[in-house]
Fold this protein.
Amino acid sequence: MKSITVLGATGSIGASTADIMLRHRDLFTAYALVGHRNVARMRELAETLHPQWVVMTDEEAAREIKGTLPEGVRLEAGMDAAIAMAEADDVDMVMAAMVGSVGLPAALAAVKAGKRVGLANKECLVTAGRLFMRAASEAGADVVPVDSEHAAVHQCLIGHDRGSVSRIILTASGGPFRDRDPATLEAVTPEEAVAHPNWDMGAKISIDSATMMNKALELIEARWLFDMPPEKLEAVIHPQSIVHALVEYRDGSMLAQLAEPDMRAPVAYALQTDPRLNSGITALDLARHGRLDFKAIDDTVFPAVRLAQTVMRCHDSVAVAFNAANEVANQAFRQGHIPFTAILKVVEHAVSGIEDVSVDSLDQVWSCDHEARQFAATLIDSRKYLEPLTVSSA
Ligand SMILES: NC(=O)c1ccc[n+]([C@@H]2O[C@H](COP(=O)([O-])OP(=O)(O)OC[C@H]3O[C@@H](n4cnc5c(N)ncnc54)[C@H](OP(=O)(O)O)[C@@H]3O)[C@@H](O)[C@H]2O)c1
C-alpha cells in the first residue's frame, strides 16, 4: 500500500488522481488531501477516499469545513500544514497538483524529503527548475511528470541514451482559437477561452492553452525535467491531442507516445510506472480517428512559444518573471480586466522589464516573482502594456 498526499486534491488533476486511487484501493491510500477553498468538493473527496488528514490552505475554508468531515479525518489549515503533509514520514508519494507558483514550497518539501513526486504543477519548474531538480537529485527523489506531453517524453526516453536525443517535440492542441481569425481574438470572452476542444482542465491552464502560454511553460518544464538545451526543444500543433510528444534520436528515428486525451493515463503512470495500472481511459482506435494532423505554430498570432525560447536563453530571473506576469495577466483576463490579446503583451513587457540575473536561492525566486507580479499589475492598471516595447526581449 502506498500512502499518498494530494496537493490540489480539489482540482481537475486532483479528480483524476482520486479516480485512479479509487480504482486501485488495494494499492493506494490517502494520507492527506490538500485543497484551498473548495469546501464542497473536499467533503466529497473525504467521504470517498477517507484520508487521515484534510488541509484547507485557506483559513476561512478550513473554518467552514470544520466539524463536517467524516469521523476520524483530522483537519489542518494553511500552507505550512500542506508542506508538513508533503514531507511527512508516513507519506510514500506526493501528487503535486496545486495551480501556480504558490505550489512550489510544498512540492519542493516533498522532493527534499526524497518522496516520489507526480508533478502536474509545472509552474514549480518554470520558476525554480534548477533548484527543484538539484534538490531532487540530492535527496534521491523521483520526479515523474504528470503533464501528458512530459509523461510521453518520459516513456520515449526509457532505455535510451540521453546523448543520442536530437529533439524533443511537444504537441499542442492549439487551444480553442487555433483556427480563429486573429482579428477577432481581441473580443473573445473568458467563457470562450476556457472551453478547450480536447481537454477538461482547470480555468488557469485552459486560458494558458488558449494563449499557448501552456506550451511555452511546458518547454521550460521539459528543459529541467529532461536536462535538455533549448535548441533541442520544440512544439508542434496537433489538433487531435493523440500523439502527446515525440523524441527524435540522432539516427533519425522518432519515438512517440499515443493515447486518447484523458489525464487519467499520465496520472496513473505517475502513481505507478511499472507495472502499469489500468487507468480506465478509452482504448485508442486509430482507424476510427482516421487521420493525425500536424502543423507549425503561427508565432505572429501566438508568440508565447517563441518567447519561451528567448526566456530559456536568459538567466533564471526571466523565467520567474515570465511565469509570474502570466499568472497575473491570466487572472486579470478571467476577471474581465484586460482583453485576451493583452495577456501576452503584459508577459512580453514583464520579460523585458526584469533584470536578467541568475537565481540561486528560493528567496531570490520569491523576490523576482514579487517584482514581476507588481510590474505586471502596474502595467495592467496603467494600460502601459499597450505601448510598444522599448527594450526588445527577442
Ligand atoms: N487539468 C489538467 O488537465 C492539467 C494537465 C497538465 C498539467 N496541469 C497542471 O496541473 C496543475 C493543476 O491544474 P488543474 O487543472 O488541476 O487546476 P484546478 O482545477 O484549477 O485546481 C487547482 C488546485 O489548486 C488549488 N489552489 C488554487 N489556488 C491555491 C492557492 N492559492 N493555494 C493552494 N492551493 C491552491 C485549488 O484548490 P481549490 O479548488 O480548493 O480552491 C485546486 O485544488 C496546474 O499547474 C496545471 O498547469 C493540469
User: Anything to note?
Assistant: The chain has a mean pLDDT of 96. Residues 8-14, 35-38, 57, 97-99, 102, 120-123, 147, 199, 201-205, 263 surround NAP (CB under 6 Å). The radius of gyration is 20 Å. The chain has 16 helices and eleven strands.
